[in-house]
Design a protein that fits this description.
Length: 131
């Protein structure tokens, strides 16, 4: 006994519907990544920046580290959502360079606003290691 032509036709339609859902899902992911990517790029740049500033603090002192932090924030093309007050040099238990900032992403098409929080830290240990 063979399969009826209606069954083959139904399977063909189901494959087309599944392909549309997969394409719509991929498009939704691409739109979200497009909306978030500038903030992720800034966060990655700040991850590198805090390590560089921590190295300067360890090797050349706090004043040079503050100068380097200001210079890097001005010249790394980090977005305007990261202000000078968002990055701090702290010395409590250990010396730490910290940048904490937030951004609101507007998802295209949906118009939904999603708040995101980012944090970059580098700590100088007693032995001079950066972690």
């Amino acid at each position: 006994m063979g399969t009826s032509p209606w069954t083959w036709r139904l399977l063909g339609y189901l494959k087309q519907v599944a392909a549309v859902f997969v394409a719509a899902g991929a498009l939704a992911i691409a739109v979200c990544l497009f909306a978030v990517w500038p903030f992720l790029a800034d966060d990655l740049a700040l991850d590198r920046l805090v390590r560089v500033v921590a190295l300067d603090w360890r090797d050349f002192g706090e004043d040079k580290a503050r100068e380097r932090l200001q210079y890097e924030l001005d010249h790394q093309k980090i977005g305007v959502q990261v202000g000078d007050g968002d990055c701090l040099l702290e010395e409590e238990i250990a010396r730490r360079v910290r940048c904490d900032w937030t951004a609101v992403v507007v998802v295209p098409v949906a118009g939904t606003q999603v708040p995101l929080a980012f944090s970059s830290r580098a700590t100088i240990g007693d032995d001079g290691d950066i972690w």
